[in-house]
TrEMBL record:
<dbReference type="InterPro" id="IPR018303">
    <property type="entry name" value="ATPase_P-typ_P_site"/>
</dbReference>
<feature type="binding site">
    <location>
        <position position="794"/>
    </location>
    <ligand>
        <name>ATP</name>
    </ligand>
</feature>
<dbReference type="InterPro" id="IPR036412">
    <property type="entry name" value="HAD-like_sf"/>
</dbReference>
<feature type="transmembrane region" description="Helical">
    <location>
        <begin position="848"/>
        <end position="869"/>
    </location>
</feature>
<feature type="transmembrane region" description="Helical">
    <location>
        <begin position="934"/>
        <end position="952"/>
    </location>
</feature>
<keyword id="KW-0472">Membrane</keyword>
<feature type="binding site">
    <location>
        <position position="384"/>
    </location>
    <ligand>
        <name>Mg(2+)</name>
    </ligand>
</feature>
<feature type="transmembrane region" description="Helical">
    <location>
        <begin position="1043"/>
        <end position="1060"/>
    </location>
</feature>
<feature type="binding site">
    <location>
        <position position="382"/>
    </location>
    <ligand>
        <name>ATP</name>
    </ligand>
</feature>
<dbReference type="InterPro" id="IPR023298">
    <property type="entry name" value="ATPase_P-typ_TM_dom_sf"/>
</dbReference>
<feature type="transmembrane region" description="Helical">
    <location>
        <begin position="881"/>
        <end position="901"/>
    </location>
</feature>
<dbReference type="GO" id="GO:0007030">
    <property type="term" value="P:Golgi organization"/>
</dbReference>
<feature type="binding site">
    <location>
        <position position="795"/>
    </location>
    <ligand>
        <name>ATP</name>
    </ligand>
</feature>
<keyword id="KW-0479">Metal-binding</keyword>
<feature type="binding site">
    <location>
        <position position="765"/>
    </location>
    <ligand>
        <name>ATP</name>
    </ligand>
</feature>
<dbReference type="Pfam" id="PF13246">
    <property type="entry name" value="Cation_ATPase"/>
</dbReference>
<feature type="domain" description="P-type ATPase C-terminal">
    <location>
        <begin position="817"/>
        <end position="1070"/>
    </location>
</feature>
Amino acid sequence: IYVVFFYFISSEERHLRANDREYNLSFMYANNAIKTSKYNVFTFLPLNLFEQFQRLANAYFVFLLILQLIPQISSLSWFTTVVPLLLVLSITLAKDLSDDITRHKNDKHVNNRKVEVLINGELKSEKWMNVQVGDIVKLENNEFVTADLLLLSSSEPLNLIYIETAELDGLVTETLIKYTISILYISGEVRCEPPNNRLDKFTGTLTVRGETFALDNERILLRGCTLRNTEWCFGLVVFGGPDTKLMQNSGKSIFKRTSIDHLMNFLVMFIFGFLAFLCTILSIGNGIWEYKEGNSFITFLPRADGANASLSAFLTFWSYVIILNTVVPISLYVSVEILRLGNSYFIDWDCKMYHVKSNTPAQARTTTLNEELGQIKYIFSDKTGTLTQNIMTFNRCSINGKSYGKSSKKKIDFSWNSLADPKFCFHDHKLVEAVKSGSPEVRAFFRLLALCHTVMAEEKTEGELFYQAQSPDEGALVTAARNFGFVFRSRTPETISLVEMGVPTTYELLAVLDFNNVRKRMSVIVRNPEGKLTLYCKGADTIIFERLHPLSSKLMEVTTEHLNEYAGEGLRTLALAYKDLDEDKFEEWKERHHEASTSLEDREAKLDAIYEEIEKDLLLLGASAVEDKLQDGVPQTIEQLAKADIKIWVLTGDKQETAENIGYSCNMLREEMKEIFIVASNTAEEVREELVNARKKMSPESGDEPPIEKSRFLGKKSQVVEDEKVNGEYGLVINGHSLAFALQKDMQLELLRTACMCQAVICCRVTPLQKAQVVELVKKHKKAVTLAIGDGANDVSMIKTAHIGVGISGQEGMQAVLSSDFSFAQFRYLQRLLLVHGRWSYLRMCKFLRYFFYKNFTFTFVHFWYAFFCGFSAQTVYDEWFITLYNLIYAALPVIGLSLFDQDVNDRWSFQYPQLYAPGQLNQYFSKMAFARILLHSCYSSLILFFVPWAAMCDTVRDDGKDIADYQSFALLAQTCLLIVVSVQLGLDTYYWTAVSQFFLWGSLSVYFAVTFTMYSNGMYLIFTSSFPFIGTARNSLNQPNIWLTIFLTTILCILPVVAKRFLFIQLKPTINDKVVARLQHTPRKVPRRRISTRRSGYAFSHARGYGDLVTSGRFLRIPVKTRSALFPHTDTTLYLYKKNM
């Protein structure tokens, strides 16, 4: 599901005073009451019906009902239309009523929560809905946050505030504000931005006694959070109720629509036109018949005054609109939603997608996209945390031109360091010797790692440290410094306390230059105990190297060689540098920094410019390298998806070498590929040239202009770039700099053509925006369904852009999961989601649509043929009660059973033959052509169903000589033949029989005969004479052998061509499904796993904004360490490779 973000910034800022209700009420700010319900007692029925009648099928049936109220037109009783319409409306009414009652209860529960509010100097208990902007509220431990608050003080030392933000992003964060409640209560005023939906930004200023302080997002406690591990805290209400950021993000939901949805909309419109065409033909036939034959019947069928053939034809048109209404599928959309809901539950209940160690089941977060999981052509994946475990270990480092980490297998004994982490492992004893010998470069290296971070330390017992890190990278680096003698012990907003080789040392923290996606680095400015000012910086090597002093040029060359070596081992790298600062220049810079930080306009841009001034002429210290291992099952999953002809693109922020190495490790890039193209140019012309050269190598006959086809894929007009033939398999690796040029409007089609020719594409050093742009490019110009999968906040834009978004609940919080359509814990579950659930859902939906249209068109066409034998008089061929119950009972449950439980092969065979996935990508099971074949099949079946019973009953008598060639007997025979034929057809379409399927099929037939004998009985006729005129027809007809012989003959003639066609196609032109079913008895053989190649790799800086501002302001991050569960092999989905040609 997409969430629509209405981001509106007015020109007026918000102005409020602390604890001054009279002043704040003058601005008429919204109070803290919320309303998420849609209806009330008076508006529910009219508003809900109004919404339902906006659906074309519902409105059409109301129109039919109006027509049936006109005596000159009505050819059916009112209940034939009212009963189906009421059932559909009632189901939707009940669902919407239940949902809205739940919303009312939730609103009432939330609005009536109690909170303590400071009023006239006293704390009073108030309901949430009565809290006003500007109130000061007191929260206690484990209480929900009442509104968007500016935090004031807390019970914790140093005023720490620990909050859980799980309802917002799944993370646990902490924050702190130093201002005391007494100061703010007297004279505090806040000016800030108006309400908006940006969870990650807040701009404002606080004025206290004439002094102005900057307010940013880390100073705000958002509604939806929970206070944890804090006895109490006070906060100032800034936004209340509907103005809170949580409610601003609760916009209307717009459902993603599948390709089948858009096709169904087109077909429904076609059906309306087709209905008008049939009715026109029949009305013309009536006019001709009235003109030529009508006068012969005037004696016993007198015409009304003024009636003639033309008027009769006009009225007949509308009469047949009523009779042939079954061709319009009123229950189609309701049935589709039931099927999707059922298939979603199958995903939720799948134990084989349940991760035991993290207690995380798979979840279908939307129920509208199940069948599209069976049509995926392109997968866009993040790397860190998605393909890898995102659990980092410190493995290698380069310090002052010397590389460490590759030595003996003997583990280093850190017993000399009483504060060392016993879980930390390192094997190069030379590094320990260098630290102990007092090497200034080595000690400066680890001092930087111990100072330049936003990690929080918690010491529950003496010497037992626990680090809470923003990212696994930071935790690994600080732990490495700890074990080598530079122990980060604690911090305050102004200081950082270390233990350096056993000596406690405190540094004054003067500034944190925080990380963001553009900077890709972070710095701290500290003053050591001797009063020396130093800037320590760490970041992506390309960013750091650009800012080095010329004196570091030789060291940079050696370090670059080491970085390449580490990348070859698949490690993530980071460059480290420092700079000594002059006191006077720093004070001048600090003033400009304060001005920028308190600016209400373009604050981030101004701060970046200020940071850029001081982060230059750095001196290189070295580089670190950490390892991030692949998740279990990733190579096998990617290999299986590739066999299903699904192309996988990895969009990552890592270095090119890292991305390339991971590509080989997870089987995306393979030795047997003909060539892997690397695009890493610095100008647009060079990028274009490399893309064109790559395309020409893959397809020499490829023209300069892209093969474009105008299409209406997924209901939208677009220019589709057709696939081009390629000999062999190729790969493409492109870096972020080149990608920025390639995504320009004049070059993006060239990028698309070249990339789509490759089996695997890796885009490295990309930003979150570029990820979304790449997905949008493929989505817009390829006639294919896309899927994006990721685990972090930097993947949200990509997940929302793709047709289907999948979130992995991992180390980076729940942002990706909350924005996704489907979620689970491990990447390897993706193959089961697509190859099993996706394929089954697509197969079931297509079978449902084919059978649904077949049974309805066959039912309707029999009416059409009967019109030629009743003088086009709009008489029905069936009993009216059969017409009413046909789609509601007799033919409804069997098709639902088919659509919920059917499967062509089981899940193991779906894994063993991933090629079974291909028909969904090509829309082979249901398309416009398939719909046309259904029409022809229905036409043939209706001819048999009408003319065989007609011929069999013409001039026929019973065993006792009585005539049974009457209308009622013929109607009973025709409808019985119809129901049996469509039931047998459903049985032929069912691959997988279950007890439920059997019960629905045989139960429906039993109900039909039970209802028929009941309604045609003497008792029903005596009670409701006009409603049940078919008295005795069932018992007089169905006891005759020739009637049952006719039913058998009709069934054989209808089914025989279907069986013959399937037999011939299996023999002459078998589908992939036919081949697999034929080979189910073969014993597959295992192919030995190929050795996984190792290629160069590197490190990408985190995409999440850092917490430097939080640290310097005294607000801290506290994230409980979540241990990854041990990965386990695919015992349940062992994949065999069957190498015979399909």
